[in-house]
Specification:
mainly beta; six-stranded mixed beta sheet; about 0% helix
Amino acid sequence: MAEKPVVSEKPVTHTVMVKVEGKKVTCDKPYVIAHREEMIEWRIDKELPFAVVVKAHHSPLQWAAHAAPGGGKPLVVKVRKDAVPGLYPYALCVCAGSTLVVVDPDIIVPVPKGGRG
């Protein structure tokens, strides 16, 4: 009997598009619903420095704060395998000229399938 080939699935990626107009910063998603081990990616429309800071005692992400690599490249992170379900506000910080602009969206980590947190 032939064995089925192992298929490697890429994790789901949630993309947040960040738009900068002068000193106004917006993102296309006021919140992201991301399950454990899924990816979140922030993309900015200009080559400006930006960072994400999770405003919680325990971050559901692999880090609590991180700056984008620069040059308009996206900032990508994985939701932790042991992330506690809940609502996590975060600060999206963008250097727009000489001004630091901060917007406050949310990350929502739902209860895993099967209902056990």
